[in-house]
Amino acid sequence: QVQLQESGPGLVKPSQTLSLTCTISGDSIGSSEAYWTWIRQPPGKGLEWIGYISPGGIPYYSPSLKSRTAISRDTSKNQFSLQLYSVTPEDTARYFCVREVGYAQFEYWGQGTLVTVSA
Predict the structure, then answer these.
(1) Which of 90, 67, 72, 73 is nearest to 28 (CA)?
(2) Cα(94)–Cα(26) distance, integer angstroms
């Protein structure tokens, strides 16, 4: 059974960087064929796909967030991370890390972590 757990600050100030880490158990990010994905859901709104890091370690981002997003992985810690730069209150959302096995095939989800952007 694959389990994913998000961690990081729950409060970020505007213009700063949102940083989250997802710790994986039950699979190995260095050898898995899965795509490791970040998705968010603002309060009262739908899900928004942020991006993923591929089995080969190549990141791919949503065009709407590409200019201020970075996704990376640490195979030694079996983790992958999200950085979102220059945040605004509109980036307030619950952030989920997800194991994606094909286009929009989201197999396993973390429980999500709420990040609030506020001064």
Answers:
(1) 73
(2) 23
Using CA atoms, how far residue 52 sits from 12, 18, 24, 59, in Å, is: 22, 16, 14, 6
**Encoding tokens for residue 52?**
């993923």
Answer whether 64's CB lies under 8 Å from 115's CB: no
Cα torsion 43, 47, 50, 53: sign? positive
Residue 47 has pLDDT above 90, yes or no: yes
pLDDT greater than 90 at residue 103: no
At 31 the pLDDT is 86
d(CA 119, CA 110): 27
Residue 12 token pair:
């970020």
